Amino acid sequence: MTEPRERLYLFDTTLRDGAQTTGVDFTLDDKLKIAALLDDLGLDFVEGGYPGANPTDTALFGTKRRLKATFTAFGMTKRAGRSAANDPGVAALLEAEADAICFVAKAWDYHVHVALGCTLEENLEGIADSVKAAKARGREVLVDCEHFFDGFKANRDFALACARTAFESGARWVVLCDTNGGTLPEEVEAIVREVTAVVPGGNLGIHAHNDTEQAVANSLAAVRAGCRQIQGTLNGLGERCGNANLTSLIPTLLLKPAYAERFAIGVTAEKLTQLTKISRQLDELINRPPNRHAPYVGAAAFATKAGIHASAVLKEPETYEHVPPETVGNRRHVLVSEQAGKSNVLAELERVGLTVSKDDPRVARILDEVKERESLGYAYEGADASFFLLAKRVMGEVPAFFAVERFKVNVERRYNAAGDLVTFSEATVKVKVGDEVLISAAEGNGPVNALDAALRKDLGRYQRFIEDLELVDFRVRILNGGTGAVTRVLIESRDGAGDTWTTVGVSANIIDASFQALTDSITYKLVKEGVGV
Predict the structure, then answer these.
(1) First to last CA, the chain
(2) Residue 60 CA to its chain's centroid (Å)
(3) Does the pTM of the predicted model rise above 0.85?
(4) What is the phi/psi pair of residue 30, to 5°?
(5) Domain stops at, among 214, 245, 267
(6) In the prediction, which pLDDT does 338 show?
(7) 85 contacts: CB under 8 Å, gap ≥ 6
(8) One domain, residues 256 and 357
């Protein structure tokens, strides 16, 4: 008979600790959208922020939020020299519309003396009184023992006293924090085992930072030693190097037998298939490109480049995939590059919807064309749409929708009517569509923007098919040094259906490279829509 699995609880602090990420500033609307994503995924706790610390978090906790997850407010324990009832910070937490309160308490004697300027006894009193005050108001209570592992190494008895005081005062969860992120997994495991002699493992949590790239490993080490709550953030957001990445931890807990057979979590296998989408939705909200090399959810997480590897993956995916990509909502990529063989080309042709026999001579021609163009600086690993068009052109299946006869871009720096120095760009494009010659001009905030606007301003009979087309990302890479360097431009486009695709252009002239990518993007859209000449 199989023993029942232990419940492991997941606590998300994306909205609080993740908000400490350099360059990330959540609006109230952002927080509400992210909280909904986390709740739908199946997280047990969603920590919304620090009521009273800033207007956004105060507004967030000003209204009851209808979440299945335990909505949690964060703040400090009471200050020394006053009661919990007379501490404004504690009062803000008690008044917050939250299901639980997470108090942060110093657990390193050095910090108590230097940062708080009080005695160790006063610090313990602050923990006890704060927990009791929140318990009296009917809240679930957590205590984040800040700098616990460094504190344990410096003064074992005091760090343990902080944990014991929190638990004995009524805290449901005592969370051990590796705040500086410098503790190693073997240290975490050993220290947590010692703590379980003071606080039961079913009441212990782990909060790891990633300063040695081991926050995920430290979290798993803590679980092995007895912790039953893991705190972390989506995509590993957080101050400095980030927090434990729940986007990596969740699939590990669900898909790796060492954990899946022993523990149950709130995220189901069905919800796990949405993980890649949720990860990218978060990146979209904070306006940053997704990490292509992120475990499980990155675009390159299941990508194979070398020819012999690709051949093996096509025969048996498990040869180079530790889990099936579809379990986390990702997909397999067999990349086409100068290292590629026919297996890569065939796999990529199939993935982009082109069925070609392995004996078809056009496969070798496509491979030769890819290698020739990559020797010039093109890269198709991240430009699916341009690869699709390259293959279709070799196969003679791309209609001549339009021909650009010439284009011109002017960039002018001048003072405007208000006396401000501004840069002004204007582009003109002459396009031939069938027997019709069209000339369009447009302005933009830069030369590429102006060129994009001019090119898409009037394509005659094809115009209605590109009305919903927009440029959403523009990336430039210099392939060799100097002012005459060869430049590779990648452009990501999106249409009204939400489909996205990437095209590439290469030239010693950045404008020309950009124009190549832009024309490929429009051509791909027309082919995708099934437009005839």
Answers:
(1) 67
(2) 23
(3) no
(4) -55, -50
(5) 267
(6) 44
(7) 91, 133
(8) no
